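Summary for the lay section of the report: proteins are chains of building blocks that fold into shapes. Here we show the chain for CD109 antigen and then a coded description of the shape we predicted for it.
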Amino acid sequence: MAYNLVILIAVIATTFCTDGKHQNSYLVTVPETIRPGMTLNIGVHLLTKHNLTTVNAQLLNSRNDTIAEGKKLFSPAVYDDLISIQLPSNMVYDRYKININGTGGIVFENYDYLNFQAKSSSVLIQTDKAIYKPGQTILYRALSMKPDLSLIYEPMDVDIYDPKGNKIVQIKGANDPSGVYQGSMVMTSEPILGDWQIKVTQGSETAEKIVTVAEYVLPSFEVSIILPPFALTSDESLPIAVKATYTFGKRVEGTVSIMIKQKYLETAGISREGSIDGESQYIFHMESLRQLFVYIDYQTFEIIAEVTDRLTGQTAKATAEITFYDRPEKIQFSDSLPTHFKPGLVYSGFIKVFKQDDTPLAYPSGNVTLHQSFFVKTKVRQEVVNNSDEPMMQINSSETEEEIKLPPLALVIPKNGIVKFHINPFINVSRISLQAEYKGLLANLSLEKFESPSDTFIQVRLLTCNPKAGKQATFQIQCTALMKKINYLIISKGAILTRGELDFSFQNKSFFRILMLHEYAPSARIVVHFVREDGEIVADAMNFNVDNIFKNEVSLHFDTESAKPGENISLQIRADPGSDVNVLAVDKAVLLLKSGNDVTPKMVEDELRSFDQNFPVFPDEPWLWRWPWSSAGMDVSTIYQDAGLKVLTDALLYKKKQINRATHIASNFPMFLRVADDVPLKAGAISGSSTSRIRQLFPETWLYNRVKTGLDGTAVLNSTCPDTITTWVASAFAVNNKTGLGVAPSAVDLRVFLKFFINLQLPYSVIRGEQVIIQANIFNYFYRDLEVVVSLHNSGGFKNVIVKEDDGINNFKTAYRNNSVEKRTIIVKANDAVAVYFPIMPTELGLVDVMVTASSPLATDVILKKLLVEPEGVPQSYNIAFLVDLTSNHTFEKFANITYPDAVVQGSRRIRISVLGDLIGPTIKGLENLLQMSYGCGEQNMINFAPNVFVSNYLKTVRRLTPDLERKANGFILQGYQRELTYQRQDGSFSAFGDSDISGSTWLTAFAIKSFVQSSPLIFIDPNVVAKAIDWLLRQANESGNFLEPGKVIHTEMQGGSLTGNVNLASYTLITLLEAKHFQFTASNSSNFDEVVRKTIRFLERSVNDLPADKPFQLAIIAYALTLAGSTKAAEVLNRLDQIAIIKDGTKHWEQQIEEDSNRLLWIPPSQQANARNIETTAYVLLSYAFKEDLRNGQLVMNWLISQRNPTGGFSSTQDTIVALQAMTEFAALTYYPGIDVDILILGLKGHKQIFFHNFDVTGSNASVLQTINPPSDTAEMHILAAGIGMVLIEISVFFNVESDVNKRPFFELNVDVVNEVSLNDITVRACFRWIGDREEIGMSVVELGIPSGFGADKASITSLETIKRVEVNNRKVIIYLDKVESKRRCTAVRMNRVNLIAGSSPVPARIFDYYSPEKQVTVFYHSAKLRNSNVCDICPGNCGCGN
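The coded shape description reads as follows.
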């Protein structure tokens, strides 16, 4: 026992001796994160004044290679300075080490490891709008900047992708002398609708901007909801106001419906309806809310208001939220307060006494009472006598904590509601408990002691409110000891920017000022320190925000607040001299649809903050940005750690030993600050004047200009106002080669207005031959009533519909008149508007001119707009694909016929030719669109999961897997993996709906295992998950080597041929087990695994001789299974397949005729995609060739598969797509050839006459770009010539409309009719369907129900069926997804309401198709007899010349 005591004493002594060995000679601070191309500033403070000392800094990689280095000579006069190291721009992810050594007067060496972040710059993208119509031009700008906002004048790459992932635009090395690249892309009149992606890459940094392409009509007004900032449960009522204002600032008259409901709950709410004239007030009584909702305390309610314009019929919505509380006020300690105090120094903090909306109390009564409890620890000594035979006394000591309650403080509440408090902790205080009280409300805060071995503390405070760049800021430093000198660092965006030393002349308190540089913005921290004589480092840090991030200050304003259409205006611009200012002005109505396109100060600030990963953010307390706050930390080590600094020193950097105890910080309620900004719109005084100019310029983007400021820093942009009556919103950002980027703090508005004008209301598009009512709204904002003559001028693209009285009162008939001017005379009251209606029937396709004139004694207005007229019928298409193989023969020639069915709609023909040099490209770009719906059940999820795996492995093999693409693909794979795990059953198997199914599926379990193991090189796959699934799979094996299928797979086509016999399922399962073994996955019992594999191989080998020659699928799948197994029988099966192969035109494939496909089409297109079974069969053979590296046969098969691909990169069905993609990617990896140089000439012929030609050049630089051209629609034959080296895919896509289905015998029965015609404005359409194929049911299917012209569908009204899994309404269709369709007839119905005035509606197409085999479909046309026979008097009585 005595021996143990000696050791204990020795350990204690050793500890004290070690603490005393600090040499106290140097203190080096290094930012913990490095970035390529940036300057790394290292703070060096030599603590002893010896002779000249050279300090060297080296940055080393994981191989100890020197990446960058720097050095500086220090002397007794210069002992605190920065060493700057310029980091190379080509740094990559690695483990980097900073090595510091001193030679000469002070000798030392130390190192530490640093974090690496690739981001060293930011790319910003601006588009002129966030949403576009087909045929419009996307305008975009891009720039790259450093964290100091200086521009990077290096080339950028620009890629633009359509919603299917096809790369439409590729620009390499885009550059501009100003640093801002400006580009554009003109869309075709029929682009793919959806989200397009603009991707800009500069160096290693990439930015993306998403813009939407949609068919839309601009909103003419906006709706807003005005609420109290919060509500009390004790209130008797809740007042709600709804405002509706045109984009030109005038009030909207119409109807309003408003509903209040509890947020996040699907329960019904309380609704009100009424009229609105600019603004409408509603009162909801609290009693009615309490009756409907059980709990309203601290609950958030959503208010939804929908306004319908009386004049135009347009609707617009707004939503708002309000939360109910039981008290109007709240109290809380600021979340930003330090959780540690420093004894001997004043602890300052804030208590917030706010209203529930985080605004100050209007009239605070009483004070805040602050209760303080100090806790002091004391040690208690205890002596314990050992009762054993050996006399021994044991000494124990323990700590007790004594609470000292100080008198409460009464704190006055200032006007801003932020109560400052100060407390003075004693030296021996270990913990402090604070409680703030206001009118019974409590808030609590617990503080721990900041630890220092010597109890020496320093504290820095910022005394300047809202420090601004370019201005001085005052700081205060206090210390519990007398200070001689203080050193400080200023860090911003993760870099040390400034260092300094302050002479304190042995004081413990002093003030100093620092000039705030623009580089400090938007946020910075100051770290102050000194070193005691015993070597202890004493430090503190303060975080603060710096306003005015831009050196280059930009402003703009119009020379007037309001102007007339066609009037000349000036935009006054100010920026630094010589700046290039990029101006943008868009219609406010566009921003109401979608925003997010512009470069804003907030966007730039967020980018700058992203460089500082250690800077705290308090999103729930935005008011804190006005206040500095201390850096968090319990000791000096965490001070530096929270500042993002690594410290290398031989002094004492104290770090408290961690104790597993949580600091308790409690407060009453979470705090959310919202700044009220309710500024009413003020209309300017506008004088009217007569005009007869034609208003025909209605751009959605007006200004998109670049101007340069002069020596005085100003510029003027002169322009002419467009013809739209609206408010234009203008913004600007500027770049300067000295002061960098600057962004105008806010946008400016210009109202373009007339006192008398026409608003021509046109639908987005109409159908040729229908009667369309053109609505012209005449606005009169003069102060007197006006008689107005309104005229519609016929352009020749339509016929005027004339209403004539026919034999009696109120009995009318319609007639048609060409090239006439129709007139109406009306009275428009002062400050009012009247709608005038002109019925027409479009006769020409495309854009048709519609011109309306309104004449009055005081003013005249003329407006010209274009109406899009589309063909009737249902759209159809087919593709003709060619693989141009110039790897051996260097010339290519091919002819392709373009034919149409007899029932083609006149004028609907359209042809598109596309060329791509990346054979796997369509698949890569279309991964997200191979299927429209990807997670309805376990099967569909795997369809989305597996192709990502194949393509990623291919790109990895050919070294084209970029970090960006790898990140995205792995994200999709990981999501698919996680989702698929939800379909794994308790027994380890997989099924369509997991444990809700009766049993797992052998086939789906094998498919899941196969996909999981193939993805294991890309993401982490839990071996236990796979082992559990394999165990279940092995239990389905029988002694003969075959497998049972106990489960049901609702998507039977997905299994391809694998259920046509025992051989197929055994082959597929064997493939899965062999691939699992290849990727080192096995069962929990590996010997059982190997035994089942051996039995299955023997079973398949025995089955080879029994396989019929007319079943190529069985031969193909067993050939691949035996090839993987290394069986000698594989060659025998492949030889049999060669005997029945179809070799033609450089291609090779296999066919198995399916009887049900014969005689189905009334018209056969010149190119038909093979059925799914034949594609899957051929793909399995290609997998065997790829495994054997049989390039000669494999290339022939590859040629055929490529020619069968659809435009999105997929195939006919789903399982054929998956197997084919695996085969193609594996074979393409073997034959990948990066060099390509092909010239293509395409000639269009009509008869023997050439009517079109176009050249395509495909090289390695543009091989992945989809090049397209639209030849004349009457082209009858294409002559294709190519020369060069490489492979190119050419696709001719033919589009047209038909008046009837081309299927002779359908796969489905579909009946659609109108079952409830409440009126001509309100109908219900019913669709009844059933499967009439050769099985009892078909799996996932889709019903597309066309919407009659002039109507919109009520999605919520669709009749519920248990088989309906998803419903969408878009592009004039209701799309209903069904998980299956049975042979039993099922019906669903949807209600439709009129949204446009159109009479004589054409028949509407509806179709149902197999989700996985879309060629299995039927299309029918339906119509309402009332709608079909309706005329303008039926839908527009009294307004179109019908009656009074």
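Put simply, here is one thing we learned. The two ends are 118 Å apart (CA to CA).
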